[in-house]
TrEMBL record:
It comes from the Bacteria. Residues 114-138 are annotated as: Disordered. Pfam families: bPH_6. The chain crosses the membrane at residues 12-32, 38-56, 186-203. This is Low molecular weight protein antigen 6 PH domain-containing protein. Keywords: Membrane, Transmembrane, Transmembrane helix. Residues 57-91 form the Low molecular weight protein antigen 6 PH domain.
Amino acid sequence: MKQTYRAKTGFVLGWVWLAFVAFNVWDLIAHYNGKPSLVALAVLGALTALVYVIALRPATVFTEAGLVGRNPFRTTFVPWASVEDVTVSHSINVHHSGEQELRLWTPMSSARERARAQRRGMPKQERRGRFSAEPTLSRGEQAAAEAFAGKTHADWVGDQIRERSESARRRDEEATPARVSWSYDSIAMVAVAVALAIAAIVIA
């Protein structure tokens, strides 16, 4: 079963942008007025290509066989047994197949998210003021809170990668080299964006 992790804010904003573009394309076509409409369409197309590459395409995917890192222009598949170490800073860095490293674009941890996670990991008496009150949590909620205490979403995903790689090694799975392929959809989108930008300049 696949599990996919994305930058939720960027992903949602990307789809909001697509809805915005769809409405504006319809409006520009319905009220076409020559060069200004063509320039606006070209600009919208170029920006949409960038939004796709940066916000919609990146994802971290867990499969039964291994880890799939979808970055803007490349897709890397790393078998679980080939994962040697995982470090988490601003991004998740997966060390595999000797000297190689895969930097995942999502999820990432900002300085603000890291600060919030550190506050969650502090003892309760240090976090709450004298008159503050915290809601009573159920047993499941308390377990989840303890699991995430002091951790960002990126830290948690990094832990899951470590656990899966260790489990694969315990099953004596073969550590095979990672497979890297280009993202032809992203390359095509950027090519279209460049072509639209050039067209907008020429038309203007």
